[in-house]
Here is the input.
Amino acid sequence: MSGVNKNIVILISGSGSNMAAIAKLAQQRHWRERFGARVVAVLSNKADAPGLAIAREQGIATAVLDHKGHPSREAFDAALMAEIDRHEPALVVLAGFMRILTAGFVTHYEGRLINIHPSLLPAFTGLNTHRRAIDMGCRFAGCTVHRVTSELDHGDILDQAVVPVLPGDTAQALAERVLTQEHVMYPRVIERLLEKMASSNEG
Ligand code: GAR
Here is the structure.
């Protein structure tokens, strides 16, 4: 891990809107000057992830590691770790990275690995969270930022945002409203973690 520099590596698989929100707050709130922190790289397991173009436009280094090119989950995660470690990250941020990670990967980044999940965990781990919340008759949905453990969508909760389910809601409409909250919550959680790291460095 880097000492003075708090490098942030973000992993995506899709549109990268959370990644963009994080990069934006990093600029707006001067993470580099305040914490020595910046988003140094955005990695994707999908070459056509639209978020890659957004990252490049912002001058952030990008790399693609296609999981299909690796014989096993372990082999892919080993290659991913090698790519991530080139950046000596203080934080590895999963932002719509749609891969189940091996225990070896999770252990390697223990204390540095966080995820956002589109439900109020521990409810609705896994996929299709909004559809399942509507079908269950939930009055509230939302999103969770949590530390990553080797158990899928578990780990200490760092923050949550609650979004009401409206009468007649579709999964897509609910997903869009939750996503808006994700964009607010995720960057703020990261800022709080950076503040914590900065104060423990001082002590
Ligand atoms: C977000 O809603 C995120 O919570 C979800 O994927 C979306 C990614 O959007 N993540 C998961 O479902 C992880 N299990 P984005 O690429 O626009 O940030």
Remarks:
- The pocket of glycinamide ribonucleotide is lined by residues 12, 14-18, 51, 95-96, 116-118, 143, 179, 182 (CB under 6 Å).
